[in-house]
Amino acid sequence: MKCINCDNEAMGKSMYCSASCRTVYNRNRKRNNVTAEISVTPAVTKSDVTDTEKTDITLTPEILARLPQGVVRPTGQPNEYTADMKAEPLAWAVSCGANWQSSPEYAEVIHRLLTLSVDELREQGMDIPVWKEHAA
Questions:
Q1: 59: closest CA among 133, 109, 94, 95?
Q2: Fewer CB in 10 Å around end: N or C, the chain?
Q3: Distance between CA atoms of 117 and 115, rounded to whole angstroms?
Q4: Which of 72, 55, 52 is nearest to 113 (CA)?
């Protein structure tokens, strides 16, 4: 069997040819294993969006003022990729993100809750909060 670091012959059942080779491999792997916070939706670049595809979905302070007290205001903005997402992937993206308040997915959920009727939300399979049901 070959060493996974240097391709020399490994000893026995080991994946490395020596202890020092194992140490070098682990150091390099930790250095190269950089994690970054990412969103589930792809980033938008200028070349991805044509003029006909652009949608002007923004959560202005006037729109956010319609949220009842106690609902966390999103700090991000929805984009054209989140507009096409179904309810389940949106819910998953919001629930697994560390910075869910600033995610475009959470902003999309709030945008839908504020602009769609309860029946339209049910058709999409979205969970309807109590404040939305009582407002209808």
A1: 109
A2: C
A3: 7
A4: 72
